[in-house]
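Hi W.,

Here's what went into the run:
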Amino acid sequence: MTPSSSGLRAVRAAYGRAHLVAGARGVAIAGALSVLAVGLHRTTDATWLVAGILAITLGVLGWRGGPSRRGSLAGVLAGVPPLLAPGLVTLLSHGGHCPSCATAPSLACVLLCFGTSALVGAAVGHHATRDASPRRFALAAIATAALTGALGCGTTGVGGAIGVGIGLVAGGLTGWVTAERAI
Amino acid sequence: MVDRAQLTAWMTAAADGDRAAVDPLFHALSPLAVAYATRMLGGDRALAEDCAQDALVGLFGQLERFDRARDALTWALTHVTWQCRTARRRRTRRAEAPLAYAPEPGLDGRTLAEERDLVRAALAELALLEPRDAEVIAAALTDADALRDALAPATYRKRLERALTRLRSAWRARHDAV
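Here's what came out:
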């Protein structure tokens, strides 16, 4: 084996290892977010489904690297407000207990999910335009932000999940267009 | 001729997760890294190849940190520089590089013999010093600047001064002259 071929094998291994570690880090982040969601909200089958999809998404995007990895991490940060918001609303408006929230979510919850998602979506859209690969960054960010937010807002029912989705897309587009015009 | 733009393009692609850019980037960087390391290590080709490979393994393991606004070759050679400095420091610590005697050209045979005896006696005296003192004197006589970098300038100067004082005393005691 020539030094060059052994060197190439070593750098390929180092490169692959770095990507695997990044993927594992994504799965670990998804695990931590799921624990937080389980601690804060009522758990349903949908919660576990969303947590599983989030783990797979963060793992794959982390392993792919580049803008996908950067976007996925930005999306996780953007998804934290919608993840925490329903818990706060429940705490403040229902005294910490809302058994009927899943079937009849309060308008406040849905609006809060929509509002926080729209705000963070705008931030993500704005930030994405500054990345070297804005589309891949934005897609990864919106996907992980929606899943992270759904861990929280999804517990308020379909209305909350739809609120997160619409909010992120609308906010993201707004942020993107605003940033493009400013350039 | 190195196509720096092509290197940066490959490094950017690899940093963005394009696996196909890894091989051409390695093949382009490897000879440059080895040549640079060989120059840094004073012609020690075997050590240079090890340092270049270690540097490239480290570099490919953290490509995600590559700032595309920077020049890829400069970034890669920065990694090689650090690896070479580490290797030189290790070599100094293990005393793998004994102080070499390089006579000045144009000396006649007798002067050369006297000078060689003096150097041999100085090295023998140096070997009897505390390792701490020998280390700082060796660092001052060679281009090994790891110790200098590790210490505050005033501390380094003081340590060197003390080591030289002890060397002088030991020399005087043994040879009755400075």
